[in-house]
Give the backbone structure.
Amino acid sequence: MDQKRPYGNSWLIDDLRGILPGVTDEELMVFHKELVTALEIITRTRSFVPGTYSSETYSNDWKKEE
């Protein structure tokens, strides 16, 4: 994944507008930040189990909360 161009071009908001039309710029940025976190959790835990996850401050060791 290209961190500078995660959706194809270097204009993050414009790229997301093409994927999610009618969404505000603020909502698009929230979506992007949440997507980055979700992808990190998926790659660290190697699973797609829905739920609430947490990690220690400055840690990438995500754990599913019970």
About this structure: The mean pLDDT is 89. The radius of gyration is 14 Å. The longest strand covers residues 53-54. DSSP finds two helices and two strands in the chain.
